[in-house]
Design a protein that fits this description.
The complex is a heterotrimer of chains A (130), B (347) and C (387).
Chain A: H1 3-8, H2 10-15, E1 17-21, E2 27-28, E3 43-47, E4 51-60, E5 73-80, E6 85-90, E7 103-113, E8 120-127
Chain B: E1 4-11, E2 15-18, H1 19-25, H2 30-37, E3 41-44, H3 51-66, E4 73-79, H4 90-97, E5 105-109, H5 115-128, E6 134-142, E7 157-165, E8 171-183, E9 186-187, E10 196-197, H6 203-222, E11 231-234, H7 241-248, H8 254-257, H9 262-265, H10 272-283, E12 289-293, E13 298-308, H11 312-316, H12 322-327, E14 330-331, H13 334-340
Parallel strand pairs in B: 2-14, 4-5, 4-6, 11-12
Antiparallel strand pairs in B: 1-7, 1-8, 2-3, 6-7, 8-13, 9-10, 12-13
Helix pairs in contact in B: 1-2, 3-4, 6-7
Chain C: E1 4-11, H1 22-36, E2 46-50, H2 54-58, H3 63-70, E3 76-80, H4 86-99, E4 105-112, H5 120-131, H6 144-159, H7 163-177, H8 191-196, E5 199-201, E6 204-205, E7 215-223, H9 224-228, E8 235-244, H10 259-272, E9 281-283, H11 289-298, H12 307-312, H13 329-333, H14 337-353, E10 366-373, E11 378-385
Parallel strand pairs in C: 2-3, 2-4, 9-10
Antiparallel strand pairs in C: 1-7, 1-8, 4-7, 5-6, 8-11, 10-11
Helix pairs in contact in C: 4-14, 7-11
The chains are: A mainly beta (130), B alpha/beta (347), C alpha/beta (387).
The complex binds zinc ion.
The site of zinc ion (ZN) has 8 residues of chain A, from loops.
Chain lengths: 130, 347, 387
């Protein structure tokens, strides 16, 4: 991730801002600029609900260097109410609690920092509803 | 038209370490320590939580309760002494995450444990003057105590956020008054990992003088007496100080007891007095009057008087009670706590 | 039309070559091609390199020009990158260069120098970012191992295969590798050892995947007509297929299947005029144990859900009825990313020519190679034949 890339995509990373095709109503997350179904390029922004359920998951025991500070941690595929599936980290969940189908909601968390002096990247993760 | 709180929200990380577990490591009697500070456990942020993430979570709840749209938020102030960046505001992260950018002002504030209420005063002023329709004031900390220091038993993590405006008011502001001096009871130098403090000097000339003076000043300003208040919340560096301050003011302990989240989540610094306010708002009835007095070392206290409105019951349906966070917990041992707080550095 | 053949093939050992850099490995493989083949360097008019991440691993780009000039090859040279499938993608590019008539003889070099990065989490970061959706998966904490773990869970629940059946892929590939002098690991592996190894991402453990390795592999592609002028040791490239799927695992409807493999295989089979039952020997992508099981099903070698039991029953051992990864696969022969796809061809070359020694499969006439990037971003399949 670079700071410019992070900045460009803060809206989807911070609050699940998706795009919606004004022609066929299809919602895209990650957001697309052109609808691949009808080629319409007039897509509008909308924030997703942030509510969904866990489709599948695993525990990352050997993280890549950026996420070594967090390990081990859970990741999974979340299906949002809008029908969109996204990959995400699952936080605030215990080993005996995590299971397929469980409800989840949007959380705002740190991804990783660049060393002691570099930028800190933030974005969405998911957790059991409060 | 009056200004007031339109929505409030708190966020407290779910990790807890008990005072007994900390005492075990330092060879102290945990039961005795717990009793002496009236704190049983404290919250600990996860490795991916900090003042920014906590502020965003609290802000989202407050905004949802307020009924205000993100674009109507004209100011975001985050008060903290543990901003993740010395330069690069926590407040802009919050503004972006709630979708309030770009037509607003924002800044980070620092005044030890009262930076949150300093932000509330600023937003009340701006809303009252008609400069903005609504604003967001947040007090959050993930503060640290040096290992083995008395502060380690209490330094917790959490925050509270308030949407302030003239519409949808759940608690109307009657007045605010501040009492401020230069009193070196507690500080942290630039770049230092842990704060230093004046031990017993943090008591009488610092906490008690400022809290009590601010409370009295506010009552004098508003022509109220202590009996006019149904509920009270003070800054709560531990579970004993606010009770002692209340006693000195002639306030019965049952009026402040409900505010003492510190017993279960520790001292959330900039969040402490206002997490207490949120807990009082969770249970207050319409018409009740609430006294809030913060305290920030260095030193100053901001006092506020609020009157709860009829909208509170409906508004609560859209919020998350403080007790949800108090009860949402998983206990960790001292070793895990040390890792989570960077007391063990793996990189 | 030109018939394209593989007229020579070689590889360096795959291991952590701390004493050799990317240039040394390339030169060693290229030198070996010219030592064992009666052809002049000047006759090679193309060099296509398959390399996954030389920039990230060694801070060197443009390997085409570098390797050609370092090795006295006056050829048109460039690098192909398709993640973990880079080697096989380079082969396809070289094939089309000859098929089109633009070039006559093209050296295809698979090359990767990984271990200049000594810390595993840093290697993992490179592999994840190249082969996954960097922005929406690798950068938010998913790893390739976690993706394969979720695929394994899906495959297990869809078909009722067991954890032991998945592990039996690694056992089988280690067994096959004991007969390969070039293999990184020539030791047998037991199911229990795999299951008890440190967890990677549940249900997978460290022994479900490959170790870091460096290496180079080279094959010489040319026309059958040209090949006849200098050798009788050649095999035919009969079909090629390349297909892609979404990089994002969350967007797959069915995690237990990988459509890109099925599509690439179908195209390659059609071009070669074969069906899966005609395959005598195959080298398939086994970066993770579960990957081999799914590849065998998508390639039609076994019915969906049947590759686990078949592997457990020994049917895919070098002496089984459907020999798979006779080289030991990436798991045991070694897995220097870009080099691996070409090493697959080296194995099929030897099998079809009957020079595979103790690994030799009887009457091997049709051989197939299959590569995969990530968990299904790109798959490449090639069909080779003795005629
Ligand atoms: Zn459309």
């Amino acid at each position: 991730m670079s700071i410019a890339d992070y900045w460009r995509l803060e809206a989807p990373r911070f609050r699940l801002e998706a795009t919606k095709c004004t022609n066929c109503d299809k919602i895209y997350f990650p957001p697309k600029r052109v609808c691949p179904i009808c080629n319409n390029d007039e897509l509008i922004h909308m924030d997703l609900s942030g509510r969904g359920r866990l489709i599948t998951f695993t525990k990352v025991e050997k993280p890549a260097v950026e996420f070594e500070y967090m390990g081990p941690y859970y990741v999974g595929i979340v299906e949002l109410e809008e029908g969109i599936r996204i990959s995400a980290s699952i936080v605030d969940v215990a080993e005996e609690q995590i299971k397929e189908g469980m409800p989840l909601e949007l959380a705002f968390r740190k991804y990783y920092a660049i060393g002691d002096e570099g930028i800190v990247y933030y974005g969405y993760k998911f957790r059991p509803p409060l | 038209m009056q200004t007031g709180i339109a929505g409030y929200g708190v966020y407290i990380p779910m990790n807890r370490i008990s005072v007994e577990e900390i005492a075990r490591v330092w060879g102290e009697d945990g039961v005795r320590v717990s009793r002496s500070i009236n704190v049983f456990e404290k919250s600990v942020p996860s490795l991916d939580e900090d003042t920014i993430t906590i502020s965003v979570e609290a802000a989202r709840i407050a905004l949802r309760m307020s009924g205000f749209s993100p674009s109507s938020i004209g100011a975001v102030y985050v008060g903290s002494e543990s901003h993740p960046f010395a330069v690069y505001p926590s407040a802009v992260h919050v503004a972006e995450a709630i979708g309030a950018t770009p037509h607003l002002t924002a800044a980070d504030l620092e005044f030890a444990c009262k930076a949150g209420t300093a932000g509330m005063q600023m937003v009340f002023g701006m809303v009252g003057a008609g400069q903005i329709e609504a604003g967001l004031a947040i007090g959050t900390d993930t503060s640290q105590g040096r290992p083995g220091d008395a502060l380690e038993y209490t330094a917790g993590a959490g925050g509270a956020a308030f949407v302030i405006g003239k519409d949808n008011i759940v608690a109307e502001l009657e007045g605010t008054y501040s009492f401020t001096t230069d009193t070196p009871d507690f500080w942290r130098r630039e770049g230092a990992s842990y704060p230093s403090h004046g031990s017993r000097f943090t008591g009488a000339p610092a906490y008690f003088r400022h809290v009590i003076s601010a409370a009295k000043g506010l009552m004098e300003q508003l022509g109220l007496t202590i009996d006019d208040f149904d509920r009270v919340t003070f800054h709560q560096p531990n579970g004993k100080f606010p009770l002692n301050a209340a006693r000195a003011l002639g306030i019965p302990s049952e009026k402040i007891e409900d505010a003492l989240a510190v017993k279960y989540v520790g001292n959330t610094y900039s969040g402490a007095s206002i997490v207490g306010l949120a807990r009082q708002l969770d249970i207050a009835k319409p018409g009740e009057r609430i006294l809030l007095v913060s305290y920030g070392s260095g030193a100053g206290s901001d006092a506020f008087s609020f009157v709860v409105t009829d909208l509170i019951d409906e508004a609560r349906q859209h919020g998350v009670p403080v007790d949800t966070f108090i009860n949402r917990k998983r206990f960790i041992d001292y070793a895990t706590y040390a890792r989570y707080r960077g007391k063990i550095r793996i990189k | 039309m030109n018939k394209v053949v593989v007229a020579s093939a070689t590889m360096t050992p795959f291991t952590d070559h701390y004493d050799r850099d990317i240039r040394d490995l390339a030169s060693e493989a290229i030198r070996d091609i010219f030592r064992k083949t009666e052809i002049e360097r000047s006759a090679v008019d193309g060099l296509v390199i398959g390399s996954m991440a030389s920039m990230s691993f060694t801070n060197q780009g443009n390997l085409g020009a570098l390797i050609a000039s370092e090795n006295n090859l006056n050829s048109a040279s460039f690098t192909v990158e398709a993640g973990e499938a880079s080697g096989q993608a380079a082969l396809r590019a070289a094939y089309s260069l000859i098929k089109s008539g633009m070039h006559e003889t093209v050296l295809v070099l698979g090359l990767e120098k990984v271990t200049d990065i000594v810390k595993l989490p840093e290697i993992l970061s490179v592999v994840n970012h190249v082969n996954m959706d960097s922005r929406w998966e690798a950068d938010i904490g998913l790893t390739l191992a976690s993706s394969w773990a979720m695929i394994a869970k899906s495959h297990m629940s869809q078909y009722g295969i067991t954890r032991e059946q998945i592990a039996s892929v690694a056992v089988k590939n280690h067994y096959n590798a004991t007969f390969n002098p070039f293999a990184q690991f020539k030791s047998k592996l037991r199911i229990e050892t795999i299951l008890r190894a440190p967890a990677l991402a549940s249900p997978l453990t460290l022994f479900d995947t490959c170790a870091a390795a460096d290496g180079a592999a080279a094959v010489l592609l040319t026309t059958e007509e040209k090949a006849k002028s200098f050798t009788d040791q050649y095999i035919h490239v009969k079909g090629t297929g390349l297909a892609h799927g979404t990089l994002r695992i969350a967007e797959r409807d069915r995690l237990y299947s990988i459509p890109a493999i099925k599509k690439a295989a179908k195209d390659a089979y059609e071009m070669a005029g074969i069906s899966p039952s005609d395959i005598d020997v195959a080298e398939v992508h086994d970066s993770f144990t579960i990957a081999e099981l799914i590849a065998l099903e998508e390639m039609g070698i076994f019915e969906p859900g049947q590759s686990g039991p078949a592997t457990e029953d020994g049917r895919t051992k070098k002496d089984g009825d459907r020999p798979i990864n006779t080289s030991g696969g990436m798991k045991a022969r070694g897995y220097p990313f870009g080099a691996a796809g070409i090493a697959q061809v080296v194995e099929i070359y030897e099998q079809l020519l009957g020079i595979a020694g103790e690994r030799q499969v009887a009457d091997a006439n049709i051989g197939v190679t299959q590569a995969l990037a990530g968990t299904g971003g790109t798959s490449v399949v090639h069909v080779f034949g003795t005629a």
